[in-house]
Amino acid sequence: MVEPYIELDDVSFAYERCAPVIQALSLKLYKEQFTAITGPNGSGKTTLGKVMTGILRPQKGRVIICGKDSADMKLGEIGRRIGYLFQNPALQIFAPTVREEISFALELKGYSKEEIDSEISRSLKNFDLVHRSDAFPFKLSRGEKQRLAIAAMLVNKPDFLILDEPTTGLDMERRRVLSDILLGLKKKGIGMAVISHDRAFVACLADRTIRMYGGEIVEDRT
Amino acid sequence: MKTGLKGLDPRSKLVLVLCLSTLGVFIQDIGILTAVLCASIVLSAASGSRLFVLIKKFRRILWLFVAIAVIQSVFAPSGRALVNLGGIKLITAGGLYKGVAMVLRMSIVMVSATIMATSNSREIVQGLVQWKVPYEIAFMVSVAIRFLPLLTDEIKNVVTAVQLRGIELDRIPARQRLKVYSYLIMPVVSGAVIKSRELATTMETRAFRAYPKRTSYMVLTMNRNDYAVITTSLVISILTLYITH
Ligand SMILES: Nc1ncnc2c1ncn2[C@@H]1O[C@H](COP(=O)(O)OP(=O)(O)OP(=O)(O)O)[C@@H](O)[C@H]1O
Ligand SMILES: [Mg+2]
Q1: Cα–Cα distance measured from residue A98 to residue A137, given in angstroms and rounded to the nearest whole number
Q2: DSSP output for B134-182
Q3: Most C-beta atoms within 10 A of its C-beta, which of A67, A168, A193, B222?
Q4: Residue B194 is nearest to which of A53, A138, A153, comparing CB atoms?
Q5: Which of A91, A101, A160 to probe the B interface (max B CBs under 10 A)?
């Protein structure tokens, strides 16, 4: 197969003053594969996702993104390539209105007003947030926050997505919609790693399933 | 004092900290201030605080201390000029003296405060309650202590989230910078408001203030060490203040 998009090489990570969560883990993720990461609570899935995105820096080993050692990359530089959805979406919402949340990155990147407007309306429609466009993001319901966080991430057009339990808090209908959206992105060639307990959701999307237990990969099935 | 300062009652620590900071604030002489600072450092280390970890963490704002000393000396010139710049006495002996004293004072207050941080907030509340401070006020103090680290976590989260949108914080155009900073503050403030509302509801569902009297499961008792520490710190502080004034 071609070059891996994200490669972990002998990575160990421990939280400050705690026992290591991940030890000597090596893993290659490809853009062409939809990878599902499963495992029981506390098995280190979220930690692994944050290490892959450079939010947490490993004490040992290297994380290579697009052939470049991520230790030399700023978080902003990684953020332009990789979209990361927090397990708790409330943590990545910060603008005063739903609309501004989506336009934030676009404005800073100097898009024109027309481009931004069309992007916003498309995104609001895709994620069924049109009626909430002027709402205060902190007052949205859990599922609405989740959709907003995903929408705000996707307008950046990342090459690779890492989603930490994207279906928690979504109802059946929204889950189906998200599944369709992810399928569409996959067809467009965007790589994805999805951390999820939702077997039914993952089953129809994943090409590869990684099972974690106690910070180790115990199963890697393609 | 076999056990050192580690097993001390929070009230004894409070007295100790108050004495040290009082000395820090009222004493003018640099020599004595230095001695008080040394004493604070020794006591803080003896109480098992993470002083050196904290110093490492605050390494980056140490220059601020130096800046304060310099500013102090520029705006309160007196005595012999040490550095002259175009006829303006930039740094004077008297000003420098005051600046150094200022830095020593701030260090004393901060170092002695780390002694307090070795008690958990529950103990501090109980100490205050047994000193007949109303429980509501004692509880508010503990909530404030408890929430402070959460706030810094929250700011870190937002900074991460902004960067993950592909924004490099040091490359934001100046025009937009203020807006981005307001984005950093907003979730923290509204998060704090939401959390405190939730906390209030939770407390009421658990019958906070439903009865006029509270019984405490935890009861603090002072032993000989505590009385020794309290008396020693009070006597030494009063004597020092008496002699220097
Ligand atoms: N900030 C932290 N500080 C210290 N330890 C942590 C921290 N976050 C997580 N841990 C510990 O690391 C281990 C792995 O946690 P992690 O969140 O990665 O698990 P997870 O697989 O995502 O679980 P879940 O299914 O509940 O989301 C756990 O034992 C947890 O207690
Ligand atoms: Mg998790």
Answers
A1: 6
A2: -HHHHHHHHHHHHHHHHHHHHHHHHHHHHHHTT--GGGS-HHHHHHHHH
A3: A193
A4: A138
A5: A91
Q: A137 C-alpha to center of ligand 1: Å?
A: 26
CA of A56 to the centre of ligand 1 (A): 12
Q: List, chain by chain if needed, residues with CB within 6 Å of any ligand 1 atom.
A: A 15, 18, 21, 39, 41-47, 87
Place of tokens 């704090």: B192
Q: Do A94 and B163 touch (CB under 8 A)?
A: no
Q: B35 CA to chain A: closest CA distance, Å?
A: 33
Of A79, A94, A138, the CB nearest to B166: A79
**Contact criterion met (CB below 8 Å) for B49 and B40:** no
Give yes or no for A66 touching B (CB within 8 A).
no
DSSP at A193: E
In the structure, what pLDDT confidence band is assigned to residue B1 with cuts at 50, 70 and 90?
Answer: very low
Domains by residue range for chain A, with CATH: 6-221 (3.40.50.300)
Residue B227 to residue B8: CA distance in whole angstroms: 10
Do residue B158 and residue A94 have CB atoms under 8 angstroms apart? yes
Task: Quote the Cα angle for B47-B51-B54, to 5°.
Answer: 150
Q: What is the pLDDT of residues B117-156, one digit of tens each?
A: 788 777 888 888 888 888 778 887 777 777 777 777 788 8
Q: Of A48, A59, A58, A126, whose CA–CA distance to A87 is shortest?
A: A48
Question: pLDDT by residue (tens digit) across A99-119?
Answer: 888 988 888 877 888 888 898
Is pLDDT of B86 > 60? yes
Phi/psi class of residue B86: alpha, beta or left (left: φ > 0; alpha: ψ in -120 to 50)? left
Asked if the Cβ–Cβ distance from A138 to B187 is below 8 Å, we say: yes
Q: Are strands A191-195 and A34-38 parallel, antiparallel or unpaired?
A: parallel
Q: For a pLDDT cut of 90, what percent of chain B falls above it?
A: 9
Its pTM stands at 0.71
User: How many C-beta atoms lie closer than 10 Å to residue B105's C-beta?
Assistant: 19
Beta strands (DSSP E) in A39-159 are: 60-65, 68-69, 82-85
The answer to whether A135 contacts chain B (CB < 8 Å) is no
Instruction: Lay out the sheet containing A82-85: strands in order across.
Output: A82-85, A160-164, A191-195, A34-38, A208-213, A216-221
Whether this model's ipTM surpasses 0.95 comes out as no
Give me the residue spans of the domains in chain B.
Answer: 1-119+222-245, 120-214
Conformation bin of residue B89: beta by default, left when phi > 0, alpha when psi is -120 to 50: beta
